[in-house]
Amino acid sequence: MNTPISESQRLFELAQGLMPGGVNSPVRAFCSVGGTPRFIQSAQGCLLTDVDGNRYIDYVGSWGAMIAGHAASEVVRAVEETLRRGTSFGTPTMLEVELAQEIVARVPSVEKVRMVNSGTEAVMSAIRLARAATGRNKIVKFAGCYHGHFDSLLVQAGSGVATLGLPDSPGVPCETVCHTLTADFNDLDSVQALFKELGTEIAAVLVEPVAGNMGVVPPAAGFLSGLREITVESGALLVFDEVMTGFRVSRGGAQELYGVMPDLTTFGKVIGGGVPVGAYGGSKELMAQIAPEGAVYQAGTLSGNPLAMAAGLATLRLLDEDTYRRLELKSARLKESIDELLRDAEIQAVVQRVGSMLTLFFDTKAVRCFSDAARANHARFADFFQNMLRHGVHLPPSGYEAWFLSLAHDDAVVEATLEAVRKSLHGSSVHSG
Ligand code: HOZ
């Protein structure tokens, strides 16, 4: 007898005829882990329910946006009330002012902010500003860091580009990437070498202060402050891409956690509470160069959209010192308990964590840069991923991504996750050595 086809399989087949790979963003297609992406019907807290009625503990969290959990009542209420008053006006609103106030109050390096619609757009705009402000063209990025699908940054990129094993993207003219220089994450010497050769042409160093798009890779001691020193000395700007880490790893993001102030910061994810959003900001002087105050042009029909502003504000208002402390405790417990399970099972793997972001790498040594992340055993991760899914836990479908906890991941959920990890490690073809 044939196994009945699930509704997710049926929809995926249909979707593949209608959308490239059946998805609207590549990592969702399960290419590197195999199998069928689950089509989600609804979500509440940290639980996803798919169209077949299966429930999963969610560690994707819309790739970090859902720090408050899915359909948090405060966020739903704020969006519903806003929705009733109209969805977009193309004129300023009070919500934009309130969200800007909230961001500026939490991040001292940001005195003024511009809202956009995605992290990609935020980074693209920040790079334009950095080039205009310095009168230079070259940008230093790090192998394995991902800053969205903006042409000039699709060079040795992490996230979906790494997951699919694409060297660089066709369709990006070499004239567009000739100003992009690549250094190694956590390797100041590789940055110094670029500055020694081309320092007077470098507009900015762009970095995820905690890399999250090659899996979670924390900055080594002195790395971020070293970037700060190099950029100050050479007159380049330091740009932190905090699309993932902003308002996630602490109240003021990674820059607060590590005590390093960048010139410009990009945001996304958490500040939209699950509605499309992005933002970039910096000092008043730098941001004064953006139109209409200055000549650097950047615009958007839906920028500062009321629904995104309302969802972001409601989310940020849930995030105080106490919620970050609770998130930290839960995340630390999850990591430490997985470490213990790995030790007991004699499986060589490392769990890397910063705040409520973590990644399990099937490798023997700590992962410090993209070549380390690429060396990890991704076939083992795929095996582990499938087992976890079978045991009701939905991880990001790639070993190059971060798992995200939310306020809704309580002790019982962490316990259930650990039980799934224990079964998945034992039930898989993952062996020691
Ligand atoms: N930065 C996110 C993943 N690392 C984006 C999600 C996506 O590419 O779909």
Question: How does this structure look, described?
Answer:
This protein is α/β, with parallel strands linked by helices and 433 residues long. The protein has 2 domains: 7-60 and 321-426, Aspartate Aminotransferase, domain 1 (Alpha-Beta Complex), CATH 3.90.1150.10; 73-316, Aspartate Aminotransferase, domain 2 (3-Layer(aba) Sandwich), CATH 3.40.640.10. 38% of the residues lie in helices and 14% in strands. It has 15 helices and 14 strands. It has helices at residues 7-16, 73-84, 94-106, 119-134, 159-163, 174-177, 188-198, 223-234, 253-258, 284-287, 306-316, 321-344, 370-375, 378-390, 411-427; strands spanning 40-44, 47-50, 55-58, 112-116, 138-142, 180-183, 202-207, 237-241, 264-267, 278-282, 350-354, 357-361, 393-394, 403-404. The strands form 3 sheets. It has a 7-stranded mixed sheet with strand order 4-10-9-8-7-5-6, sandwiched between helices. Strands 1-2-3-13 form a 4-stranded mixed sheet. Strand 7 (202-207), helix 8 (223-234) and strand 8 form a beta-alpha-beta unit. It is globular, with a radius of gyration of 21 Å. The protein starts with 6 loop residues before the first helix and ends in a 6-residue tail after the last helix. Residues 429-433 have low confidence and may be disordered. (4S)-4,5-diaminopentanoic acid is lined by residues 25, 27, 63, 146, 159-160, 213, 401.
Compact summary:
With about 425 residues, the protein is of the alpha/beta class. It has helices at about 5-15, 75-85, 95-105, 120-135, 160-165, 175, 190-200, 225-235, 255-260, 285, 305-315, 320-345, 370-375, 380-390, 410-425; strands at about 40-45, 45-50, 55-60, 110-115, 140, 180-185, 200-205, 235-240, 265, 280, 350-355, 355-360, 395, 405.
